[in-house]
Amino acid sequence: MGLFNNGFKGNILTGLAIGIGASVLAPVVIPMLASIAKPIAKAAIKGGLSAYEKGKEIVAEVGEVVEDIVAEVKSEIVQERMEEISENLNNQEDNG
User: Fold this and answer.
1) Which of 9, 6, 28, 27 has the alpha carbon at shortest distance from 17?
2) Where would I find the H helices in 1-96?
3) Helix (H, G, I), strand (E, B) or coil at 14
4) Residue 37 contacts by C-beta under 8 Å, 6 or more apart in sequence?
5) Does residue 30 have a pLDDT over 60?
6) pLDDT at 94 > cutoff 80
7) What is the pLDDT of residues 36-47, one digit of tens each?
């Protein structure tokens, strides 16, 4: 309870003074901060877009590699099946 008995009036007056000071300085400070923050924000957005584009390229390249591997595996499966069929035909000719 000691925190609340330390003089609310002093805290209110201090808060009011800070609020008035901020409202007087805001028209000057905000444009200054905006002029500093805008180039930083633009640079961050440019970097983000660049990273996004690079990521898209990498994903596309990985997709192509995976497609190539899948095509090779399918080709190998077909080749193996053709060899099995050929062996089975040869065995049937030998037996029959």
Assistant:
1) 9
2) 8-95
3) helix
4) none
5) yes
6) no
7) 889 999 999 999
